Amino acid sequence: MKTHTDAPDAETAPQSGKVDFLASLKLVTGALHTQRGRILVSIGLATLSVLLEVLPIWVIYKLILMITSGQATQSAFWLHVGLMAVTIPVGYLCFGLATRLSHVTAFNLLYGLRMRLARHLAKLPIGYFSNMRSGRAKQTMISEPEKLELLIAHAIPEGISALVSWVIVTIWLFAVDWRMALASVILTPVSLGIMSLAIRISYREASAMQDANVKMNESMVEFLAGMPVIKIFGHTHLERQDTAKAVTRLADVQSEMGRAFVPLGGTFYALILANITVILTVGVWLLYICQIGLGTLLFFVILGANYSTPLMRLFDLFHHFAHISLSATSAREVLDQLPQHDSQQHLPITTHDIVFESVNFDYGGGEVLNDVSFSASAGTVTALVGPSGSGKTTLATLIPRFYDVTGGRITLGGQDVRDMALDQLMDCVGFVFQDPFLFTATISENIRYGRPDATDDEVQDAARAACAHDFIMALPDGYDTVIGQGAQLLSGGERQRISIARAMIKDAPVVILDEATAFTDPDSEAEIQQAIKVLTRDKTLIAIAHRLHTITEADQILVLDCGRITERGRHTGLLAKGGQYARLWQDYTLSQSTPLRQKEDLP
Ligand SMILES: Nc1ncnc2c1ncn2[C@@H]1O[C@H](COP(=O)(O)OP(=O)(O)OP(=O)(O)O)[C@@H](O)[C@H]1O
């Protein structure tokens, strides 16, 4: 029997630490062709803008030549001034248009990449997410793709135009006077050498920097999420938190990078500035020996001094490349994760019984379920009980394939759940989680999540059946009240009832309840039990229960211990047997009648 294994550990998967120089480009090449026209126009405009930037220097050179040779006329003077007056704003206009186009391209590609990541993540097995900390997830989805903006919006148009204009200007300089041109470029090989060393250092440090960044992100998210615990245990001093260590580590890595990088950057800029000294020395000497005129000297002083400006742009862009490539690598690694196997075959199912056949399962750290076999007939109630950690939730989550079994098989209506199309399986199964998750949306949108085409009346009927209608109507905007993070906060019991309403509206033939009444108060528990009876009428119900009085009428009770079924039967039969269930029941009834503090405990 084939098994479909879960994804590798997400904590390590997206962070290989290796820098693939072309990773960023490879990541977007598929989408780049859709934006090819925009990119080419943007590069063309950026190049034109750089050339228009140096054109006024040529105009000044021509003017000086005219004046020094006594050929200057008023009309020629105004023509040249007019040309300068046009080229400067046109150059800026071209640069503005190039930037606008490159940003539109970048945002389109980023949108596409994020959608690709989100769609791909939705296809990955749940195991991938349970190993992923929210700080890292945020980094992969939000911060890392953001860095590609620098590549697409700046590096491609500005980098390519800088390179092109640098080559053109070099040729131009040599065309005017090869000796002066040589003086202008003599320091360039040293500058390029320093640039390549700086890029190599930045590639070496980028990995440590990204790692420190991710750790700080994770730590910050945890720090904020754990604030109530931090406060109650008096750990509010940041110095005592791991967060402080993560922040310090990032600062250390940044300083280390600065220490390695700043001297190189400084030398690079100093050499660029030193260019003028060489040009002036050679130029004044050539002027002195009458080899060049004043116009040529001025031309080289102005153009030669600016000659390295494109190099400075490249230097600024290139030292970000390592970070961009690492971000692209981690996004690539997410996209390379194998999606959960989906047969995409809608198999014929006439009944909705669930059968576990010698099921084994482990999360990767030892067996959690061992040789579990049972059959839950359609329309019956199967209760799972057992000590904490015995594997009840794990067993239940295998049915909708949150994880795939590592041995044996699970069938629904006679079909292996792995052979069914995922959407068919999901249509068959409703799940009420122990800690229900509600989206930041209105209450009716949250309930309608169970069936998007449900009418308002159906949403209200489901809420009534889940005993949620009354408290919803008492909220400021009733069913239109926005709930979730940063909005109207609900109690645990209220959230649970909304999630029951959501499951009710889905009306799936198999329902799994993971301690669905855990947060309900005694007054509403009876009502919710009644609602659950309505929800699960004629359905195959698998219910995990710690509150054992809720499952006394179950058709079968499975007692789990250390991942094995140790007892099975009905409530009365299991009590009469006097085994593990009887002991659990005794402990449960005792805990229900024991006050938090006995009278004799009081001082
Ligand atoms: N995502 C996970 N990754 C690794 N181990 C896990 C994961 N979820 C649960 N486990 C382990 O599997 C075992 C069974 O856990 P499970 O949550 O299924 O037990 P349970 O009987 O439902 O417990 P409880 O009654 O406390 O909810 C435990 O040892 C637990 O630590």
TrEMBL record:
Limits of the ABC transporter domain: 349-587
PROSITE patterns, A to Z: ABC_TM1F (PS50929), ABC_TRANSPORTER_1 (PS00211), ABC_TRANSPORTER_2 (PS50893)
Cellular location(s): Cell membrane
Keyword check for Transport: yes
Membrane association type: Multi-pass membrane protein
Top-level taxon of the source organism: Bacteria
A GO molecular-function descriptor: ABC-type oligopeptide transporter activity
InterPro entries: AAA+_ATPase, ABC1_TM_dom, ABC1_TM_sf, ABC_transporter-like_ATP-bd, ABC_transporter-like_CS, P-loop_NTPase, Type_1_exporter
A GO CC annotation given for this chain: plasma membrane
Entry keyword Disulfide bond: no
Domain annotation ABC transmembrane type-1: ranges: 40-323
Keywords: ATP-binding, Cell membrane, Membrane, Nucleotide-binding, Transmembrane, Transmembrane helix, Transport
TM region positions: 39-64, 76-98, 150-174, 180-199, 260-279, 285-305
Protein name: ABC transporter ATP-binding protein
Organism: Aliiroseovarius halocynthiae
Lineage: Bacteria, Pseudomonadati, Pseudomonadota, Alphaproteobacteria, Rhodobacterales
